[in-house]
Amino acid sequence: MEKALGQYMIYRSILKRRQPDRELFLAVPHGIARQFDEPLGQLLLEDYDLRVLVFHPKKKEIIRWLP
Question: How far is the C-alpha of 49 from the C-alpha of 67, rounded, in Å?
């Protein structure tokens, strides 16, 4: 999570300057996405204004979008 969040923040900074009309999403497998249901995960969603795409790796389908 720490590494993914760091990469997300770097990419978001770059996109904001180069292509401000594009939206960036953090894609995470459903097993990891459970962390966003916890208080710390909710804090990260709010403080970093994260847009998260939750997917099922075996079925290769999107399960939900956060927030």
Answer: 9
Q: What's the chain's length in residues?
A: 67
User: 2-66 — its CATH code?
Assistant: 3.40.1350.10
DSSP state of 21: T
Q: How many CB atoms neighbour CB 54 within 10 A? A: 20
Q: How far apart are CA 47 and CA 63, in angstroms?
A: 23
pTM (predicted TM-score)? 0.80
Query: Rounded to an integer, what distance in angstroms lies between the CA atom of residue 5 and that of residue 51?
Result: 11
The domain ranges of the chain are 2-66
The position carrying tokens 């939206």 is 23
Read off the pLDDT of residues 34-50 as tens digits, 9 standing for 90 and up.
999 999 999 999 999 89
Amino acid identity at 30: H
